[in-house]
């Protein structure tokens, strides 16, 4: 890695005077990549000291903060359920439980208006007792017996966690139980006394992306140095990780997933003798569960599979949901090949051109899938009819909704799912996937968090530069004159096949819409709104398409006089933060506010920062000259230039973000300073990639966001 000392002062001065794009070899701000070095933290403190008085001193800040905290810590929120056996668990945070409590109740009690919760782990008390900044990262409980769990604890919100074995009966950590020191790690139960896991085992056991590439088994009472290696990936991989699947029929399958990049995975079947045999399933596929001994997967690329040399191929289109028996995919043990007439592999469902499968869950006897049609959600329960294939039945939802599978029972076919819309509060429903005709009971409904009586929701389309139709949602004030004066916030993501859906967001509603703002969500390419092809259209060399889609929506909002550049703001985080950096550098004329949160911005060095190498499959590799050429054309840090008038940006990140390095945001802000451009920068010293570890921190985060947006877009 280059340091300041390796660059001559003359080169730095010339670069700054020229105001030209920053080249990696002459980067004057490399020192800011030191996450917690004294010089970096001093810079952060100085920036925070400049920004916080501006925003917290605004007369609106305290009201926005109090409203956000009330929403985030409200005790009448829906307590999101999960199942451990037949018991309902929930992790809960409020003003009295800032770090949170992990608690449980019976299903019958949960369905009541006033569930009787029993605290299992009090994270506030644990953090205080141990003097640690523990943040909850979930628990993985032992199958069948449901008596022991592996609890994941993060120091300050990092992805790296410490894992401890916990006894649900005694509600205490197991004396001499499994304890795995802090690492980015994937762990699963092989049996009651054996784990299979990947982690940092020491030198030579992690990938360039910082994830484990060596899978081992660990028995109770063994030290980490006694774990037995069963699989080893390669340093250039993203990771190698175990995946243990079980079904109601008693089948168990142990898989090793070797991710060669973010989207391509080689899958291996691990037998009882520790031998790993490759499975001939598409490298672009996702295994969702197992039922009746068959793996349930979605394929993200066209798959043509021939069961035998003289059999006709079975063809499955990209985006399809498929069932396959893994044993039947292995080479036959004799030379006598029998042509199978049954359905293996078997297509369960194939989406149309404007459809996509968003979520899949497997119960004891059914496969349940959330299916979007033109970004409007539905839910179907599929049953295996043997030689007649799979059949699906719908479960009830609302119109124009976002639908999400919340939890499925460990035993049986019960299913919690939610439905919501931009102005329709979330409903939590309970159904039996085995009997979808019985409908679903609405067991919880979120109280309305903002006044939606004056709001209207429209789905519209913009035309991108290459003629592609880009759908977007607009939530606006009823009866507003189309005179270009509406303060409008445009949000998008556009990457990693993740969709932006019509969700009910109390913070957007209370802190923005109720105060007269409009809100638009763009379904740009790079996302998953229309399946794998929509994502692939903006991969690597085609990345610019996602940005052009976003600009097209902004231009449509302006052309239809919903708003104008004076009143238009942009917001995105993570990959969406990269989108914001591009929006600022390529089209500064379109916006008067840009919130750049937890962003990727230096795309020439992103692979050299923690976790960055794992995203080469999305963006490309700047170490390859041909790929670097098209990355350089949009990389925001390298494309800040003198002589350009940029809107005042609000740039924010977290010191504890070990997924997207805080150096991206720091260096971008510093470069704006070099150019004499105004900006606001705030860095939360906790919180991880989510940038909000608890309700209080999150309330501050959103109050800062909306104070800035109010100043830029609502003030005249």
TrEMBL record:
Domain of life: Bacteria
Presence of keyword Phosphoprotein: no
Coiled-coil annotated residue ranges, if any: none
InterPro entries: AB_hydrolase_fold, Pept_S9A_N, Peptidase_S9_cat, Peptidase_S9A, Prolyl_oligopep/macrocyclase
Domain Peptidase S9 prolyl oligopeptidase catalytic intervals: 512-713
Xref: Pfam families: Peptidase_S9, Peptidase_S9_N
Positions of the Peptidase S9A N-terminal domain: 26-427
Keywords tagged on the record: Hydrolase, Protease, Serine protease, Signal
Signal peptide as annotated in the record: 1-24
UniProt protein name: S9 family peptidase
UniProt organism field: Caulobacter hibisci
């Amino acid at each position: 890695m280059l340091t300041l000392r390796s660059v001559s002062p003359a080169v730095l001065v010339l670069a700054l005077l020229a105001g030209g794009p920053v080249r990696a070899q002459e980067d004057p701000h490399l020192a800011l990549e030191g996450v917690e070095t004294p010089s970096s933290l001093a810079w952060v403190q100085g920036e925070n000291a400049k920004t916080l008085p501006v925003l917290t001193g605004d007369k609106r800040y305290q009201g926005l903060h109090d409203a956000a905290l009330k929403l985030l810590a409200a005790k009448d929120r829906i307590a999101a359920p999960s199942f451990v056996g037949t018991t309902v668990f929930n992790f809960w945070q409020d003003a009295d439980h800032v770090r949170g409590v992990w608690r449980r109740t019976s299903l019958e009690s949960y369905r009541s208006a006033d569930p009787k919760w029993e605290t299992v782990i009090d994270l506030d008390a644990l953090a205080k007792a141990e003097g640690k900044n523990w943040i909850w990262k979930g628990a993985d409980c032992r199958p069948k017996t449901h008596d022991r769990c592996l609890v994941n604890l993060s120091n300050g919100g990092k992805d790296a966690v410490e894992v401890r074995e916990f006894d649900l009966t005694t509600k205490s950590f197991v004396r001499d139980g499994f304890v795995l020191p802090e690492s980015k790690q994937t762990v699963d139960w092989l049996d009651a006394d054996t784990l299979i896991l990947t982690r940092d085992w020491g030198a030579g056991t992690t990938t360039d992306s910082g994830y484990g590439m060596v899978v081992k088994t660990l028995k109770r009472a063994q030290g980490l140095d006694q774990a037995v290696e069963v699989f080893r990936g390669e340093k250039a991989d993203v990771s190698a990780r175990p995946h243990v699947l079980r079904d109601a029929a008693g089948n168990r399958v142990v898989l090793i997933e070797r991710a060669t990049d973010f989207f391509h995975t080689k899958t291996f079947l691990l037998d009882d003798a520790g031998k790993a045999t490759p499975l001939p399933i598409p490298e672009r596929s996702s295994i969702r569960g197992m039922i009746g001994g068959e793996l349930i997967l979605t394929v993200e690329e066209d798959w043509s599979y021939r069961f035998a040399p003289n059999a006709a191929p079975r063809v499955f289109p990209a985006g399809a949901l498929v069932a396959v028996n893994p044993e039947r995919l292995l080479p036959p043990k004799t030379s006598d090949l029998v042509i199978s007439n049954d359905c293996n592999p078997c297509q369960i469902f194939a989406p149309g051109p404007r459809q996509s499968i968003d979520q899949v869950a497997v119960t004891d006897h059914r496969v349940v899938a959330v299916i979007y049609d033109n970004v409007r959600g539905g839910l179907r329960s599929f049953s295996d009819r043997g030689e007649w294939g799979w059949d699906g039945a719908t479960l009830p939802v609302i119109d124009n909704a976002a639908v999400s599978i919340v939890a499925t029972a460990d035993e049986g076919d019960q299913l919690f799912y939610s439905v919501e819309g931009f102005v329709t509060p979330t409903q939590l429903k309970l159904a039996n996937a085995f009997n979808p005709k019985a409908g679903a009971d609405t067991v919880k409904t979120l109280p309305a968090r903002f006044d939606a009586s004056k709001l209207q929701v429209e789905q519209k389309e913009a035309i991108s530069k290459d003629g592609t139709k880009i759908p977007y949602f607009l939530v606006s004030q009823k009866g507003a004159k189309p005179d270009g004066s509406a303060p409008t916030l445009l949000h998008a993501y556009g990457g990693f096949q993740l969709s932006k859906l019509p969700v009910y967001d109390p913070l957007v509603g209370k802190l923005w819409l109720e105060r007269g703002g409009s809100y638009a969500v763009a379904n740009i390419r790079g996302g998953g709104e229309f399946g794998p092809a929509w994502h692939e259209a903006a991969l690597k060399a085609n990345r610019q398409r996602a940005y052009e889609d976003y600009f097209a929506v902004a231009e449509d909002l302006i052309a239809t006089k919903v708003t104008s550049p004076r009143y238009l703001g942009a917001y995105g985080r993570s990959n969406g933060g990269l989108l914001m950096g591009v929006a600022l550098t390529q089209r500064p004329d379109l916006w008067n506010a840009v919130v750049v949160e937890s962003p990727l911005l230096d795309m020439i060095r992103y692979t050299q920062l923690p976790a960055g190498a794992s995203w080469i499959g999305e963006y490309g590799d700047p170490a390859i000259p041909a790929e670097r050429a098209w990355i350089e054309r949009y990389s925001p840090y390298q494309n800040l230039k003198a002589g350009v008038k940029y809107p005042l940006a609000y740039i924010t990140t977290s010191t504890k973000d070990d997924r997207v390095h805080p150096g991206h945001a720091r260096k971008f802000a510093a470069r704006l300073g070099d150019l004499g451009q105004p900006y606001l920068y705030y860095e939360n010293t906790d919180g991880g990639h989510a940038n909000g570890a608890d309700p209080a921190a999150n309330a501050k985060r959103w109050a800062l966001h909306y104070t800035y947006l109010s100043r830029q877009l609502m003030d005249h």
